[in-house]
Amino acid sequence: MAHDLGFWTLQALNALQLSMLLFLLSIGLTVIFGLMHFVNLAHGSLYALGAYFAASLTAVGGYWMGFFLAPVVVAGIGILLYSGLIKRMRKSGPMAQVLVTFGLIFAMLDLTRIFWGDLALAIEVPALLDGRLAFLGVEYPTYRLFIIVMGLAIFGALAFVLGRTQIGAMIRAGVDNDAMAACLGINVERLFFMVFCFGCALAGLAGAVAAPLLSVTPDMGLQILIPTLIVIVIGGLGSLKGAVAGSLIYGFVQTFGAVLAPQLASVLIYALLAAVLVIKPVGLFPAKG
Amino acid sequence: MKRATLAALGLATSIAMPAAAEDIKVGLLLPFSGVYAALGNEIEAGFNLALEQFGGETDATFEIVREDTEVKPPVALGKAKKMILQDDVDVIAGIVSSGVLGAVRDMVHGAGVPLIVANAGNDEATGADCSPFITRMSFSNSQVNRPMGMWMHEQGIGKVYTLAPDYAAGRQMIDAFTASFTAAGGEVVGQEFTPFQKTQDFGPYLAQAKASGADAVYVFYAGGEAISFVKQYDSFGLKAELPLYGSGFLTSPLYVNAEGPAAEGVITALHYVPTIDSPANAAFADAFEAANGRVPSEFAVQGYDAARALIEATKTGASDRASLANALRSVKFEGPRGPLSIDPSTNNVIQPIYVYETVAGEDSLTQKVLAQLSAEADPVNGCEMAPVSN
Fold first, then answer.
1. ipTM surpassing 0.95, yes or no?
2. Strands across the sheet containing B338-342
3. Which domains does chain B have, with CATH numbers?
4. Hey, of B189, B196, B235, which one would you mutate to test binding to chain A, going by the most A CBs within 10 A of its CB?
5. Distance from C-alpha of B112 to C-alpha of B90, rounded to nearest angstrom
6. Closest Cα in chain A to B195
7. Domain A8-123+140-279 class?
8. What residue intervals traverse the membrane (chain A) (predicted)?
9. Structure pTM?
10. What pLDDT does residue B11 have?
C-alpha cells in the first residue's frame, strides 16, 4: 500500500500523542522509584482513579472541573496511601513493596467496581477541543493535539523545575545519593512525600486526560501499567530524560509497528525491551551515571 | 431476596398443583467479576425476569445455585465440577466467554448434564465440538455476521476495510462477514486484527483504513474496546466519508450511551435490538426496564430466553438431566427476538438477524431497525450429533 506524506504525518502525531500520555504516567513513577527506590505498582490504579473521578466530576460540573479537580483528588488519595501504607513499607525490601502495591492494584480495582459499577463510562470531549484542526497538511483531532501540547508543556515545566530551581537540585541530589543529601540537611523524607503526591497528581491528570479518548473501565489501570513499566525500564530509572526518551520510543515503536508490521505489533516493544536489558541493563538515560 | 421470590413462586405453584411439583436445580455459571462482569449481571437479570414471568406456566420449581466464573477457564471448570458433583444440579445455564465454554465442554458432555449457553458464540461449540447436552440460546459468531455481508452488498457497497480484535471471536465474526460479502461480489481491500485487550489507541489503524480506498469499514469490537473505537473513529472525522458498519455488539445498548453522539449513524447487525416492534418484545423490554432502570441489551434477552427455554423444556415433563437435554433440543417459542427454534443438527438457536442504525432519540440514543433478515441455520461445520438415550 502506497502512502502519502499526510499518512505518515498522521501516524507521527498518533505516536506523539501516545508518548505524551505515557510520559505523564511514567515521570511520576520513575522519580518516585529513583528518589526512594520505592516500587509503586499501584501507580496504574491511580491513573484509573483519575479517569473515574474525572468522569464523575464532569457529570457534575463539566469537563474542566474534572480536568482540574481529578488530579487534586488523586493526590489526596496519594497522601492517604503514603501515610497509611507506604511510610511503613519504606524500610522493608523491594519484594514486600512489590507485593503490597500489587495487592493494592486488585483492592483498588474492586473498589472502583463497587463505587462505579462494571459498565464502562465515558466523557465527552469539551466543546472547545471538539472537532479537528488542519495541521501540517492533515486534519487531526483537536483533543489529541491538546494532549500533545499539554505533555510538552508539562515536560518543559518539569525540566525547568528539576534543572533550574533549588527544589529540583534537592530532588536530583536525593536521587543521586539520598544518604549524602540527608547529611547536607535536606529532609529527604519530606521531599519524597512531596514528589510522591505530585506523581500521584500527574497519574490522576493522565487518567482525566485519557478518559475522553478511551473508555473508562475498572481494568484500565492494569492495562496501562505494563507500558508504563516498559517506558521507565527502557528510559532508565529516576530521570526526566529517561521518561521522555522511553515514552517517545514506546509511542513510535507501538504506532509504526502497528502500521508496518501488524503481525509483530504486540511483540516488537517487548523485543526492544529485551534488547535494552541485554545491551544496557540500566536503561538509556539512568539518573545515576 | 431473589431466593425468597423464587420460593414464593414455588409455593404458589405447589399450592395450585400439589401432585406434580418437580424441583429442578439450576446452576447459573456466569462471570460476576472480571472483564465480563457487566454481561454476567445482565444475563442474570434477564434470567430471573423470565422465571418471574413464565415460572407459573410449568409445574416445576427452580432452585438456583449461582457461581462466578471470574472469566477464567480453570476457575469455571472447578465451579462446573462443584455444581455437577457436589450440588448435583439438573441443568447448567450461563457461560459468557468462549474460552470458558471450551473448558467446561468435556465436563458437561461427559457427565451428561444439559448446558444452556447464554452468550459464548464460538462457532465450534455448535460445530465440530457440538454435544447433545449443549444447547445454545444466544448466537454463533458467524450467524450474526454472515447476513450482513449480503445486505451491505445489496446496499451498493463494493469495497470494505475490516478491523477486529485478534482472538477467536474477532476472527470468526470477520471471516463470516468476509466470506458472504465476497461471495456476493464485494471486495475486502484491507483487513487488520488488533492486539486483543492491548489496543487502546486505534489511531494507527484508522489512518490505514482511511488510506485504503474502501467505501465503508466493517468492524467487530465489544465492551471497552467498542467505546474507544467508536469515539476515536468519530474524532478523526471518518464517519462522513467512510461509513462505519459492524457486528451489532459495537453499539450494544449496554454501553452505547458511553459512546454518545459518536455512535449516531453507525449501522450494525445483531440478533436482538430493544426497539423490535412486537408484543413479546414490548412485554419484555418494559418489564426489564421497570426492574433494572435501563433498556435491555442482547445479553439480557439471552438470559431471558435461556430461562424461557428451560421452562418450555420442563413443560414437556422433563425433570432429570437426560430428559431435560432432549427436551431442550426441541424447544420452540416466540420470544422478544421473534420466532426461535433449535437446529436439531447443531443445537444452535435459529433466529432472525436485525440490521439497525443507532440514532438520536428523545433523551438518549436509540436503535432504528432498518431490516429484518430471515432466520437461517448455521452450516453443520463438522458437528456429529449423537442422540441422548434416557
1. no
2. B332-335, B338-342, B349-350
3. 2-139+276-350 (3.40.50.2300), 142-270 (3.40.50.2300)
4. B235
5. 10
6. A266
7. mainly alpha
8. 20-39, 69-86, 98-123, 143-162, 191-214, 220-240, 252-279
9. 0.88
10. 47
